[in-house]
Amino acid sequence: MDGEQLVEKTLQSLVELEQEGELVLTTSSGSSVARYILDSALKQLVTTFRDSDAPIECTMPHLLEQTIDEVKNRYGVPSQRAREITGSYYNRLLARLPVEKIAELYWHDTPSEMAKRSYYRVELDRDDSEFEYLDWRRKH
Fold this sequence. Notes:
about 140 residues, globular, mainly alpha, single chain
């Protein structure tokens, strides 16, 4: 199940609660509310998970979903293309780094920064290790 499906399911649950009289929705942007609730729950889950003895690399699915959303929202690309960009960049990292190091990179740099790097490297086909990336990032 991808991020959009989770948002849809969360929104569906909110609408059902409203229909049952358990909740009153006063927003015109139910998807935004559902996304906020889902993101809050996932962040708590990941924080709890991170504080446990489980390996950090187990958090990669959540980090990648956040990065996909960032690419989609920041650059206005369709969901499928955002998924392709993020996946391609992740696979490039995976070719030279272990998953544990990649997870540390995503946690340190945040999915927002990794979305910028993914877009720059994959969509613009530019080398994100160059100083040109830093100039580009300041503008975007």
